[in-house]
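agent> Task received from the user: take the single chain below, predict its 3D structure, and emit structure tokens. No templates, no multimer pairing.
agent> Plan: (1) validate residues, (2) run structure prediction, (3) serialize to tokens, (4) report one or two observations.
agent> Step 1 OK, no nonstandard residues flagged.
tool_call: predict_structure(input=
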Amino acid sequence: MVSLPIEFLPAGLAILVAMVGMPHGGLDHRFGRALLWPRFARLWWAVFLVAYLGAAGVIVCGWFVLPALTTGLFFLISAWHFGDDSSGLQPLKIVEGGMVIWIPLLFRPLEVVGLLVWVIPNGEPFSVLAGLEMVQPLLWAILIFFIGSLPFELSLDAVGRKVAFAILFTTLPTLASFTLYFCGWHSTRELAGLANQADPARTWRGLRLVLLAAAPMSAIAVLATAFAAVVFAGDRELEPVLVQAVFLGLSAVAVPHILLQEAVRRRGLNPFQTESVS
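)
tool_result: status=success, residues=278
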């Protein structure tokens, strides 16, 4: 069996997140316009930028000032957001959405500790390991709850999906399984949903519209992340710099992205119909 060198995994993560992961969040300005135009009219973009960049800045600062709290909140918010890809009710959706997090934490702990040391600014292995040991009982409780919930699934497809994800997150390196899940499952499903909103009759045309509309914001986010990585790289090796840049960048946009999506969805707005409000 051919195994890829470890340095290929961070590079592959960065490339796939830039090409597939970022575009599904590159329409946040359209979500912001749909949400803010009725109240602020032509000033919507100023309110959007202040709120969006402010939230992103708070998250980035949190990694430096309160890394343990920021890590926990990022994991919890990600699990809740990823859970939207599944069927069923909370907390089952959070448990399934968090599989990409709690399974590696439980079955590949030293590997995850190494990644977190790379991600957290000035991360200390012993501090990260001590934090992980504190949450081990909770992780085992989640596993028991997860296994116990399988017989009550109404769909064999749901059971098969959960089992397949469990095998993926247990057997593959954490960086590889996260990349496959985030880019190959979560991001592509969100892009497909956006394409259907853009053009319900012709999905492929809708996907083209989505990618074109998302390109500017996605490019800005990728370039800003790359610039920050170069500035703060210091004398570190490329692999930890790439991993830190990707996850800090994702966490910075995740909070405003999720809040925008939830607000727009609750109001039944379509970000591709915002032209009509002007």
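agent> Step 4: summary for the user.
Residues 8-271 form one domain.
agent> Done.
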